[in-house]
Write a structure and sequence with these properties.
The complex is a heterodimer. Chain A has four helices and seven strands; from the N terminus they run βαβαβαββββα. By secondary structure, chain A is an alpha/beta fold. In chain A, the strands form two sheets. Chain A has a five-stranded parallel beta sheet with strand order 2-1-3-4-7, with helices on both faces. Chain A has a two-stranded antiparallel sheet with strand order 5-6. In chain A, a hairpin with a 5-residue loop joins β5 (about 95) and β6. In chain A, α2 (about 35-45) packs parallel to α3 (about 65-70). Chain B is built from seven helices and 15 strands. In chain B, α2 runs antiparallel to α5 (about 190-200). The longest helix of chain B is centred in the N-terminal third of the chain and has 14 residues, at about 85-100. The termini of chain B are far apart. Helices cover about 25% and strands about 35% of the residues of chain B. Classes of the chains: A alpha/beta, B alpha+beta.
Chain lengths: ~130, ~300
């Protein structure tokens, strides 16, 4: 059960944020929205969400940087991070390093274009 | 009335405006066909069916033709609109009150986008920032990806950006709303504030909104779920024409649709092959909205699935 846990949805595509938020709200999650990495970090610091659904390619600060800031901060590192990525083929594990130097400590990932139902299952797995 | 709260303002980069006049433009002859063949992206499209064919307004990425600075435009969007007719109408009334012309307006699930002349960009931004309740740290931004990320992705995963088209284009799925109330208000530019206020006063949820400007005439369309009646001041009613009917709406969006060529055209071709005709259509951001005569929405889904993939 979601027990009204707070989920932060971060993507620079407002339509995708809206679609994901509607699904989450239908499952009784509380939802906060952010549209770039800077705004996301502000809301993460202020609201301490249980889970962050995080796009990778965003203006001002990308998802990799946001993920790293969360996972290297003792006060935030327990927040679950689910990456939305169009480059999911490169993600062999959720704690990976590949030779182009991009690393992530995300807890899970969903390839784009996302299957909203699959995303909801992942959220429930982590928040249930 | 207190200021309407929104989350942000998005500013597109400079593009040039292109218009197809309705005479002789059956759906099989849309300008979008040749633009897609030439791999030209159209980040914002408005299309309406008229008695003479389809009228199309779009923005093209690329250099503005020399000697035609009036064609230099940009797209300015506010989000999220929360499907509130109050926000939609308020925006139209705002443009009317400030006397700022726009070329067309299109909504998506979250955004309302106006295409304005580049010369008006600063005025529009000031007007929006002074009027809406925005988050304290918000600054209007032009979507642009960090160079390092772009280079990384393009090098390894070229298909994630704008430079290709799949045989079947990936989407996040189609959404169909049948039997919606379609309202059309036609007026002169000087009637925009009154028309916008009337839409604002509907106090309804809207599924799609679009405005097309032809010379001094503006056609404003609004799709709502409940039967609604536009109420105009009696002394001004002759300056407006209000029509209503029913229609179906199909919406879909997909990854980086706003950056990629040929998405709308692929939908138009699918519908044309199936003998279906568009009443209205609009694209902005990563969303495509297709308005069809009532009863054709259901039929359009299998037709669209021939060109598009759903999860």
């Amino acid at each position: 059960m979601s027990e009204n846990k707070l989920v932060l949805v971060v993507d620079d595509d407002p339509d995708l944020v809206e679609a994901v938020s509607m699904k989450l709200e239908a499952k009784s999650y509380k939802v906060e929205k952010a549209y770039d990495g800077v705004e996301a970090m502000e809301k993460i610091g202020a609201e301490k969400p249980a889970l962050v659904i995080l796009d990778v390619m965003m203006p001002r600060k990308n998802g990799w940087e946001v993920c790293e800031e969360i996972k290297t901060d003792d006060g935030l590192k327990d927040i679950v991070v689910v990456l939305l990525t169009a480059v999911a083929d490169s993600v062999k594990t959720t704690s990976y390093t590949h030779h182009d130097g991009k690393t992530t400590l995300a807890d899970d990932y969903v390839p784009k274009p996302i299957d909203l139902d699959a995303l909801m299952e992942i959220v429930e797995d982590h928040c249930g | 009335m207190s200021a309407i709260r929104i989350n942000g303002i998005r500013v597109g980069h400079q593009m040039f405006h292109c218009r197809q006049y309705p005479e002789g433009s059956a759906s099989g002859d849309l300008l979008t066909h040749s633009l897609a063949r030439n791999k030209l992206n159209l980040p914002c499209i408005g299309l309406e069916h008229t008695d003479f064919g389809h009228a199309l307004s779009c923005c093209l990425e690329g250099e503005v033709p020399s000697g035609h600075p009036e064609q230099a435009v940009c797209m300015i969007s506010v989000y999220p609109h929360g499907s509130k007719s109050a926000t939609l109408g308020y925006l139209l009334a705002l443009f009317g009150r400030h006397g700022i012309p726009f070329l067309y307006m299109v909504s998506s699930n979250a955004m309302i986008s106006f295409v304005v002349n580049q010369a008006e960009k600063a005025r529009v931004l000031t007007m929006l920032e002074q009027t809406f309740d925005l988050p304290p740290t918000h600054t209007p931004y032009e979507p642009s990806f960090q160079e390092e990320t772009v280079e990384f992705v393009k090098k390894r995963y070229q298909e994630t950006r704008a430079y290709f088209q799949e045989k079947r284009i990936k989407t996040y799925g189609f959404s169909l709303a049948s039997g919606l109330e379609l309202i059309c208000v036609s007026c002169g530019r000087d009637g925009l504030e009154v028309a916008g206020t009337a839409i604002q006063d509907l106090d309804a949820r809207f599924d799609f909104g679009m405005a097309m400007v032809h010379g001094e005439t503006c056609h404003f369309y609004c799709l709502t779920r409940a039967e609604t009646k536009v109420s105009l001041p009696a002394e001004q009613s002759t300056a407006f024409r209000v029509e209503s009917g029913t229609a179906d709406l199909v919406t879909f969006h997909g990854p980086h649709f706003g950056d990629r060529f040929g998405i709308f055209n692929a939908a138009a071709v699918c519908l044309d092959v199936a003998g279906l005709d568009l009443t209205l259509a609009g694209c902005t951001g990563a969303s495509v909205s297709l308005v069809l005569p009532e009863g054709q929405g259901e039929v359009s889904l299998p037709a669209l699935e021939k060109g598009f993939e759903t999860p």
